[in-house]
Amino acid sequence: MSDSIKEKLEGIVSKALNSLEIVSTPDALNEIRVNVLGKKGELKELMKSMKDVAPEDRPKVGQLVNEARDQITEKLEAAKQKIEMQQMELKMAAETIDVTLPAKKNVIGHRHPNTIALEELERIFVGMGYEVIEGPEVEWDEYNFTKLNIPPNHPAKDEQDTFYINKDIVLRTQTSPVQARRMEEGNLPIRMISPGRVFRSDEVDATHSPSFHQVEGLVIDKNITFADLKGTLEMFAKQIFGEETKTKFRPHHFPFTEPSAEMDVSCFKCGGKGCRFCKGEGWIEILGCGMVHPHVLEMCGIDPEEYNGFAFGVGLERIALLKYEIDDMRLLYENDERFLKQF
């Protein structure tokens, strides 16, 4: 399978480079960028097949994908400069330029901090054999709450906490419904992450927004233990925050997991000694996790006597805020170029 992916990758690179050799307009250049590097581009689609690659081959394949992305990005920039030069020459030949006017700079956007953080999370978990699965943002109440062991009288279902379309349809408050849908399909074992936008009736401030993003993970298999959960999340924390990062699990309660925990990481600014960044505690909370509740498995058609598993959920904005030391989440959505061009 790795040879097949390598051949597909070489084909994508060859096709992109050949197209860039003859591209002559900014619109055509942007079309190539979107088709190859976009959210639904060829490289992103290729990454979904990483789950079928042997574990020992995944780092090598991941490196090949990164090298291909870098090669195409470099050629895109070169083609952009070439097109700009050609257009400038045509313009100078066709008209007189008033050199007293300020120049107009053609600015091409780049990845948002959330996108950068998401791509890094996906790279980490795809490298561990997970697949990336997305689902609907407008969801049935049954999948958003009932199948996750959240009863009708649970506080999370209050209209002050949840955006209801009607009594049966809501804007999803988490990406866990994607996991319930995947479990219902019955294709076991499962190793998946489900990134996406979620909605809660929160006031806008430095740490809250009515619309934000989550990345939730699920593993269902035979003989899964809490040790597997800890090992997975420790590897994730070390890869995204640094090899010196330590983790700590604190007991907590979530309706869909039992036992449940919240995970803290040692402050990567002070090494756990205590500083302004971690509010003097030396630890920073980043996610919730736990073993999938047996009743959740039953409601999704899985025998809890034969299968078990674990789940976790992390706020994408929280990772971006921590990783890039941003102290106000509103900065991510105000579209201020002075802020965004730093990334």
From TrEMBL:
Cofactor: Mg(2+)
Cofactor, free-text remark: Binds 2 magnesium ions per tetramer.
UniProt superkingdom: Bacteria
Location of this chain's protein in the cell: Cytoplasm
Biological process according to GO: phenylalanyl-tRNA aminoacylation
Residue stretches making up the Aminoacyl-transfer RNA synthetases class-II family profile domain: 121-334
Principal location: cytoplasm
Class in the EC hierarchy, top level: ligase
Aminoacyl-tRNA synthetase as UniProt keyword: yes
Gene Ontology CC entries for this record: cytoplasm
Record keywords: Aminoacyl-tRNA synthetase, ATP-binding, Coiled coil, Cytoplasm, Ligase, Magnesium, Metal-binding, Nucleotide-binding, Protein biosynthesis
Protein residues bound to Mg(2+): E258
Gene3D superfamilies for the chain: Bira Bifunctional Protein, Domain 2
Recorded family membership: Belongs to the class-II aminoacyl-tRNA synthetase family. Phe-tRNA synthetase alpha subunit type 1 subfamily.
Subunit-structure text: Tetramer of two alpha and two beta subunits.
Protein name: Phenylalanine--tRNA ligase alpha subunit
Organism: Eubacterium cellulosolvens (strain ATCC 43171 / JCM 9499 / 6)
